[in-house]
Fold:
Amino acid sequence: MPKLIKKRSRKAGLPPGTLIHIGEKKVEELKITVINYDETHFQEREIKTIEECFVYKDKPTVTWINIDGLHQVEILEKLGNCYELHPLVLEDILNTDQRPKMEDYGEYIYIVLIMLNYSDTDKGIVTEQVSLILGPNFVFSFQEKEGDVFNPVRERIRNSKGRIRRMGADYLAYALLDSIVDNYFIILEKFGEKIEFLEEELVSQPKPETLQTIHHLKKEMIFLRKAVWPLREVISGLERGESSLIKQGTGIYLRDVYDHTVQVIDTIETYRDMLSGMLDIYLSSVSNRLNAVMKVLTVIATIFMPLTFLAGIYGMNFKYMPELDWRWGYPVIWLIMIGIGVFMLVYFRKKKWL
Amino acid sequence: MPKLIKKRSRKAGLPPGTLIHIGEKKVEELKITVINYDETHFQEREIKTIEECFVYKDKPTVTWINIDGLHQVEILEKLGNCYELHPLVLEDILNTDQRPKMEDYGEYIYIVLIMLNYSDTDKGIVTEQVSLILGPNFVFSFQEKEGDVFNPVRERIRNSKGRIRRMGADYLAYALLDSIVDNYFIILEKFGEKIEFLEEELVSQPKPETLQTIHHLKKEMIFLRKAVWPLREVISGLERGESSLIKQGTGIYLRDVYDHTVQVIDTIETYRDMLSGMLDIYLSSVSNRLNAVMKVLTVIATIFMPLTFLAGIYGMNFKYMPELDWRWGYPVIWLIMIGIGVFMLVYFRKKKWL
Amino acid sequence: MPKLIKKRSRKAGLPPGTLIHIGEKKVEELKITVINYDETHFQEREIKTIEECFVYKDKPTVTWINIDGLHQVEILEKLGNCYELHPLVLEDILNTDQRPKMEDYGEYIYIVLIMLNYSDTDKGIVTEQVSLILGPNFVFSFQEKEGDVFNPVRERIRNSKGRIRRMGADYLAYALLDSIVDNYFIILEKFGEKIEFLEEELVSQPKPETLQTIHHLKKEMIFLRKAVWPLREVISGLERGESSLIKQGTGIYLRDVYDHTVQVIDTIETYRDMLSGMLDIYLSSVSNRLNAVMKVLTVIATIFMPLTFLAGIYGMNFKYMPELDWRWGYPVIWLIMIGIGVFMLVYFRKKKWL
Amino acid sequence: MPKLIKKRSRKAGLPPGTLIHIGEKKVEELKITVINYDETHFQEREIKTIEECFVYKDKPTVTWINIDGLHQVEILEKLGNCYELHPLVLEDILNTDQRPKMEDYGEYIYIVLIMLNYSDTDKGIVTEQVSLILGPNFVFSFQEKEGDVFNPVRERIRNSKGRIRRMGADYLAYALLDSIVDNYFIILEKFGEKIEFLEEELVSQPKPETLQTIHHLKKEMIFLRKAVWPLREVISGLERGESSLIKQGTGIYLRDVYDHTVQVIDTIETYRDMLSGMLDIYLSSVSNRLNAVMKVLTVIATIFMPLTFLAGIYGMNFKYMPELDWRWGYPVIWLIMIGIGVFMLVYFRKKKWL
Amino acid sequence: MPKLIKKRSRKAGLPPGTLIHIGEKKVEELKITVINYDETHFQEREIKTIEECFVYKDKPTVTWINIDGLHQVEILEKLGNCYELHPLVLEDILNTDQRPKMEDYGEYIYIVLIMLNYSDTDKGIVTEQVSLILGPNFVFSFQEKEGDVFNPVRERIRNSKGRIRRMGADYLAYALLDSIVDNYFIILEKFGEKIEFLEEELVSQPKPETLQTIHHLKKEMIFLRKAVWPLREVISGLERGESSLIKQGTGIYLRDVYDHTVQVIDTIETYRDMLSGMLDIYLSSVSNRLNAVMKVLTVIATIFMPLTFLAGIYGMNFKYMPELDWRWGYPVIWLIMIGIGVFMLVYFRKKKWL
Structure:
């Protein structure tokens, strides 16, 4: 479960465009990879200095520069200078607590996304902000750390699978978006399984920990929702196609991602509704158990209190208590007591307490 | 109750338009039926290879091709090539976890619907995705398995009942839509009966299982809602009549289906409200029963504790206890005890605890 | 309380425009009355065959044909043929589970309304669908059974009271609408009284039946809401005056009905809010009573348990128990016991438990 | 607390424009006052017959006619005839259960408002409908009874304070509106104090009456909301300035009232949220107290039940019970009992029950 | 925690534009500071009389006049006269209970904001209304008391850091807005920490005070929301750039602040959701503890009641009770009692009550 809020306080009051990395440093070494391709040609390499990729600026081929790690501010600055990126864009790339958004700067489009991963070690979502910059012939992607969901896209470029090599940078941006949204489905599958498991547990044997788990899942749903909800607007903004950077043919693919996003949101809402329902079930099962406990207590007390009272009566030391001297007094009192007990049991059974 | 989410993970990362069937294989054998008709002529046959239906492509008559089973991807591919369907459409047909949507590709309109059936064996909803493709002179329908709600439409075509034979492919698409929406009413009737039955049970004799049933129905309502809600948009999109594929005269019929859809949604909302109300009733009936149990316990304890105490007093072994030697001590103590008991009973009756 | 849903299943799959009456047959004999009037002339009669009213078709006077009972489908068919009504309109007249709607067919406007009555025998709402067809010089009204809220309108026509005789068919349609909405206020008054009565009961003496009543009222509010909410759209659709059938001067009256409808909806929402509040009050009064019961039990147990224990001590049969032989042992133990009891009572009073 | 709904039933079915006063007669004697002014001239008088004010109709000065009491329908009729008011306006003035609305009749604007007063005797809101008619050179105000919030406006006119004497009738209407909205703040202050007082009580010493008060305040908030919410639309309708009756310069003042109205609505929503939160607190404090009570009971029972059992053991009359004959049996049993008691107390203290 | 509502009552009925300070006087001495700058020149001074700053009116440089303290109404009046501010603006500056708003008066834009501070002494939010007036070459800021979040902006102007000295008055206004919104993040960080701490406490050891804290935080969230929500509209109003006072280049910065505001609102909503979840957890933990207490009571009662009854039996004084004379009667009864006790314990362990 990611932190609720990242420390922005160290940035407060600084002039806009000041480049300071908000969020923890998640990677030791910055890693820059460049993929350059068109329909016939493909090149992929890892570079050491950012200057190496400036050569691609005016080439007609599509260039995808991916940067893992955000702590070396000067690299970003150089890239920004070369490609004339607005300081606010650079600042936003470093503020890793953005909500997804899309900003059209004319020359390029800036997109912020949240990439989610399910960590099996933490048993929860791991979050990472991904910034994309889409220009006429390039896509830049900025990640907080190594490891992403883009490998299938890389494979498709390498092997020239699908139409990706025939299309431009806008299609590449779409493919990256699509990978991220596709990955949400995998996260949702995990949660779906958890919720179904929890539901069975709830019916068979609810425990106080069940409540903790429901609460935990609800919190993760709140988090997921916050991450995915604004994405809808982002993609529909891209799809509306007011930017010349998005070509006609890509629009239909963006509509497809849009549908997926709506489906993800729908599923999150469904999960939320279900978790609320489960909470109700849990609370009422607690009440039901209290009822059961109290019935046991009441049955026991109702049977033994009158009997103990009777025994107390004949434990009194009055001189003149004729029953005490009767020959069959003791067996008779036993019979009376057993009678009372049996009557009570029958009564409670009729009342469905037993 | 259908699964919450289908395994999309095996698709993640593949290029868009990759044809992979999402969802379980529900039928062994693919079945293709063709119905070809105009006002004077009618033909119906089952075919083995998809190529057989390409002959209908340029005929002026209306052709309805229905395919049950989605696991043979190559058949879809051939059909797509012949009729120039967009790869994303073919992909969506195979992804059987879509939310209802309508996409206008100019040459044809693609519609995704969810067909519901009430299964008496599972005591719940069975769901099946139906894809419709409406072209100028054809309608394709894709189902996951055999068995559907379209038989009355087939009958009407066969017997030339109503205006269906006189109208075009758009009217046929409407008729299929209408069958699916009509079927929702039947599902809702079933639920309506269940809810009314449950409500009576709730008043007469609430049980822990009642809660389970309420919870289960609520979940099915969430599911239904998710399936029907987007349909509104789909049909109003068709009705707005921006596509030339929908002729003037069909609009009025679509408005009719639209009204039905709104009525279905209204009813689902009403059911949800009612189920929420029933949950409140259930929970408070649990509290009421706890109250009743505790009153019994309190009455018993309040009557017998003082009496047992009194008996305990005269069971003490002090040497100088004058009462013990009184001639009428024993009867008097009985009278006092009975007096206390009667007083308590009267008191509790006045307090309305008995 | 009307049924949640009417059996539509017997209609599923039939071609649109098939005339089948949905809903129970509520009247034995169909009754057709015709009122024909203009400023100077007035005629009212009951007719046996529908053909008799075809003579009014081309007269310049306003004709109001009211039909009570919907089970004779052929009468509707003949009327439909004569006045060229769309088959879907005829179908909708017979489907008595419509939500209120307005459809402009150019030549005529079709309006569906729900007429409510408060039945003193059933202690609840009785519902009846009313269909209105407004043409250039006629209004048709279709009701499920005899008895309606239109008598004041009839009186005004007969006695030429108000402006009704001077105005056209659109004003007549308005007058009928207005009668139905006015009647909602009477229903709401009944509920208002019930809710105020219930609220007093809730404060003075809540009973488990109170909960049932709250639940019942909530359900009727859900029902009312469903019936009235779409009416807003219907009337604002009429008022917007896009149809040439609604004359300029009638618009202002429709705005008046519109205001009334909004007021009805407002009041329903207020009632719903109040009933929710009352449910909270009820539930917490249950908790409060449980608290009271438990306090009684605890007080009794806390006082008598130590005393009984003490009595038990001196009921032991040890040989060497010096207190037993003391001259004042018995009175002293009484004093100690009374002391403990008084102390407990004072303690509980200080804790505000008594 | 005003009645939920006023008796409209006696009006049902009457033709529109029928003048019948809905609501209780709140004043014995009708009172008509006229204020007539321009920048240099001022006249104020109370008149007996409505005809006296017809002389002001064509004067260029601003005329404000205020009528307290609505039960003399003929006065309204005469005024309506003279100033050509629409019958529906007259009808609405008499129906004192309107929701706030604004209707532009071209020649004049009709505004309905709800004037609230806090009555210290009833400890609640007192409501009164105020109707304003704004014409080119006149404002009519209709109130149900004497006493209003307009005195400061009267003072300002009399003393020529502020710009009121320099401005036209539209500014006067604004000033009246402003007085009514300003008064809402005073009502809200009262409620704010009540809520803060209640909150302190809730923390220090919650009582069942606290719940009643929360419920009562919630109901008054529902009522307030219903009265103020539509006002927003009314004022923004006036401000949009589509009527020529509202001069340019007044728009900015209306925007000011609009802001105040939004602030009132905001505050009402905040109060509602807070009262909901207080209800939660109350309910959980009830649960907490139940817990405390049950702990006392459990501690007492857990200590004394084993002890009483032990005492019961040595009260048995078996012949061969060696302990009974031991010299130190009695003191030893006391020690054991005290030991058990102390152990229990320590145990419960460790469990934080004491 | 600020007061819910400020005393507006003393203003009710006064003509609009009357200058009366609403809210408590928070500062003894009024303090006026002037900062005057352009790209090359900078001047900062504290002045005594407001007239001293009139000299800046027609200078081309940017003038920022900051006034701390609002109780000296005449100073505001003089400033208003000199810069021709509308009386309603002056009135609004003094009414320190405004909701954030933006009003475009053509010559200048009036903005109201709420500046928040977290007070460590009060453990809560401290609120202060800030009014900004943005003219072509000036910004006025009005604060209720000394101390603000603008120091970083002052530093940047003094040291000519960033672009602030090169830009106009609109950029200065943006910078002030930005400081205030940045400060919201710091407030939210504090609350985020509190909520996380509370959540841990809730899991490990819930106390009645936990509930109070949750309630308190919820209230502060309601307050925060009320303060921040309207800000969105304010900034988007500025950003839409309809005023000529906002230059092209500043729009992009305003979009940045807008994004931050949306993020703040998002976070507040997330916190509210989480606090609601925590309330549920708390309430159910109370129920769980009640369950635990009741189980202890029931176990104790169920074990000792039958045993005490048995002991009572053999404490009876019947003459003929053969068991009493048996040699091994006493040990046997002990064995039976121990057997019953062990059986009960095993039974409860199996039922998972122990």
Summary: Chain E has a mean pLDDT of 87. The beta strands of chain E are 31-37, 42-47, 62-68, 101-104, 109-119, 124-134, 138-143. Helices of chain E lie at 73-83, 87-94, 151-158, 169-204, 208-239, 248-313, 322-325, 329-350.
